[in-house]
Write a structure and sequence with these properties.
The complex is a heterodimer of chains A (244) and B (366). Chain A has 244 residues and is α/β, with parallel strands linked by helices. Chain A is built from 9 helices and 10 strands. A 4-stranded mixed β-sheet of chain B has the order 1-2-3-4. The chains are: A alpha/beta (244), B alpha/beta (366).
């Protein structure tokens, strides 16, 4: 498996406040890679850098061989993003939400866009909700619909921001199963930001843990290995619910 | 990326290139037509020359199978493509039933529909009543008020509106004076332009124009601010904490608007008079004659009536803005609708109240 995302010595400062510094890691093709850590450690900041919404103070990030800072357009064509709130367009039904990217970036006729969008919604278990508006569906359905929208053009990389946040354990487990199924079916790479331990253990091939005080990565590896063998206090506390 | 192409070879439909979303648009219709034309029981599709098949490509093949009506026999597909098609075949969505969905949506919309005219009127009267009750209960709820909030609202509604009021007042004074001076000059009555402009500004235009500015700037801001709080469930949070939103959010806004309004009207009046004075100076009248004419035509009662009216307008505009915000529906569009409703409602209420005052003051001989 080749490397699809490369993060080299990336730092982020806001004025004199350092969020993290010298963060480096790589993500392999078709891997489910999780970025985890406590609140305020910079998980979402790192994600914003990786999807080109924030320019790193220092360092370089490449996705599918394209530099995120200088070749943003190419990077955006290679990725889909699911935001924490779903961020579905409230004025469009789910079908139109999913078909939007196809209308903009392909020459598919309307009937084809509709067929494909319905298929994407069926892939996330929303085949019978295609004509509903975002206001008419539940939070879990909105997250599934947002994943379907992120999948619209079959991007090789998907970034998911807190997919399980605010969901009940059953819906959350269903979403985890969906991520693995999509990875196996489409061969896509998933980068998931979360701090839900159950999800991390269920979906993650590898993960990194960020820490606010260390201002960077304190652990990297397979989650089960980290849970069993890590000698970092914060990692043990996170995975084994030990007190600090 | 290789362009996709379709070739018919007897009963076999052979694809080449990459069957991906960016490519299949060009061959979608012809592929569907080819599948429809094929009379063989089995639809034989050869994808040996295809390097990549994504969901869009797989959907095309499955749509061709559905249109053909028989079984599809796929030749030469790589493992990934075959697995994807098999996976998608298991979850082919049911046909869209737009009518049924529309009925369900309409039913849901009826449950959360916008109130009718009568219900709207009831909401407004209730809101007005609740605000009055909150005002009367204020002495027992002073702890709900936050001085910093009040100062911030007053600053936004008053001080920050000053430059706009000065500019509009000055221009309106100039325009009024200039437009009326030309015809009045023909009768040698151009000095009376000072009377006309001063009376119009003090009694009508000053309060009315500032109320329109207040509705556009402050009323809409109140609606958007409270509407966003409503959407974010901040209002619900206040209510569950036992803090009544009318006292904490509405009263400071209404009070701030009522307090800053006279200052804005005075500013508008003065700016308008200066604009008018400039035009009359250009017509050759000395400053002393203009001032004399203004003091002769307009008395303190005209000025004070205007100020009184303006405070009522301000209360109406602020309350309508707050009501629009607190009765906002769900979603970002609702906040926009609340802001629009605040501006329209504020302006209409101002004009209606102005008409009411005109009749009232006439009957009272003021």
């Amino acid at each position: 498996m080749g490397t699809i995302i490369q993060v080299d010595d990336v730092s982020q400062h806001f004025a004199s406040r350092v969020i993290f510094k010298n963060v480096s890691f790589s993500v392999a093709t078709s891997e489910v890679f999780v970025i985890l850590g406590g609140s305020g450690c910079g998980k979402s900041t790192l994600l914003k850098q990786m999807i080109g919404l924030l320019t790193p103070t220092a360092g370089r990030i490449s996705v599918c061989g394209h530099d995120v800072t200088t070749d943003t357009e190419a990077v955006r064509r290679s990725m889909g993003v699911m935001f924490q709130s779903g961020a579905l367009f409230g004025s469009m039904n789910l079908l139109d939400n999913v078909a939007l990217a196809m209308a903009v970036f392909t020459d598919l006729p309307a009937s084809a866009r509709q067929e494909i969008a319905r298929m994407k919604l069926a892939m996330v278990g929303l085949g019978d909700a295609a004509l509903r508006l975002p206001a008419e569906i539940s939070g879990g359905m909105a997250k599934r619909a947002a994943i379907a929208r992120a999948l619209a053009l079959d991007p090789p990389v998907l970034f998911l921001d807190e997919p399980s946040a605010g969901l009940d354990p059953i819906t959350s487990a269903g979403l985890d199963a969906l991520i693995l199924e999509l990875r196996d079916t489409l061969g896509a790479t998933f980068v998931v930001v979360t701090h839900e331990l159950q999800s991390i253990l269920a979906i993650s091939d590898r993960c990194i843990m960020l820490d606010r005080e260390a201002q960077g990565i304190i652990a990297m590896g397979k989650p089960k290995d980290l849970q069993a063998h890590s000698d970092v206090k914060m990692v043990r506390a996170f995975f084994n619910r030990e007190s600090l | 990326m290789n362009n996709a192409a379709l070739r018919q070879d007897g009963d076999v439909l052979a694809f080449s290139g990459d069957l991906v979303a960016q490519n299949v648009g060009a061959i979608w219709k012809s592929s569907i037509a080819a599948a429809k034309r094929t009379h063989a029981v089995t639809l034989v599709i050869d994808v040996t020359a295809c390097h990549v098949i994504d969901t869009a490509g797989a959907t095309l093949l499955l749509t061709m199978e559905r249109i053909h009506g028989g079984q599809m026999q796929l030749q030469g597909a790589e493992t990934q493509g075959t697995a994807l098609i098999a996976q998608l075949r298991k979850i082919i969505p049911p046909p869209l039933n737009r009518q049924e969905e529309q009925r369900a949506s309409e039913e849901a919309a009826r449950a959360a529909r916008a109130p009718s005219v009568l219900e709207n009127l009831k909401i407004r009267i209730l809101f007005f009543g609740e605000t009055i009750v909150a005002l009367m209960a204020l002495p027992t709820k002073l702890r709900f008020l936050r001085g910093a909030d009040f100062a911030h609202i007053a600053d936004n509604a008053g001080l920050q509106a000053m430059p706009l009021v000065v500019m509009l007042g000055f221009l309106i004074g100039m325009i009024l004076a200039f437009q009326s001076a030309i015809p009045m000059q023909q009768f040698g009555a151009d000095l009376y332009v000072a009377d006309l402009v001063a009376l119009s500004l003090f009694r009508e235009l000053g309060p009315l124009l500032v109320a329109v500015i207040l509705a556009g700037r402050t009323g809409s801001a109140f609606a958007a601010e409270l509407g966003t709080m409503q959407v974010n469930e901040e209002i619900a949070a206040l209510t569950t904490m036992g803090i009544d939103p009318e006292t904490m959010l509405v009263l400071p806004r209404v009070a701030a608007a009522v307090l800053v309004m006279p200052a804005l009207v005075v500013t508008m009046d003065v700016a308008g008079l200066i604009g008018m004075g400039l035009v009359l100076r250009l017509f050759g009248f000395p400053v002393s004659a203009i001032i004399g004419q203004i003091t002769f035509a307009a008395g303190p009662s005209d000025f004070l009536l205007g100020l009184f009216k303006s405070m009522v307008f301000a209360a109406a505009v602020a309350m309508i803005g707050c009501r629009a915000g607190l009765t906002t529906g769900n979603g970002p569009r609702a906040v926009g609708e609340a802001a629009t409703s605040a501006v329209v409602g504020g302006i209409v209420a101002t004009v209606l109240l102005d008409g009411l005052f005109a009749v009232l003051f006439y009957r009272m001989g003021l």
